[in-house]
Amino acid sequence: MASDLSLQFLLMSNDLLKTIAAKALPELRDMITQDVVLLGPSGPPIVGHDAAEKLCLDLFSRFNIATHIDFQREVIQNEAFMYVPRVKLTPVHLGEPALMCTCVAALRYENGAWKLARGLVIAVRTWPLENPEC
Question: Which residues pair with 125 in a beta bridge?
Answer without folding.
Answer: 100
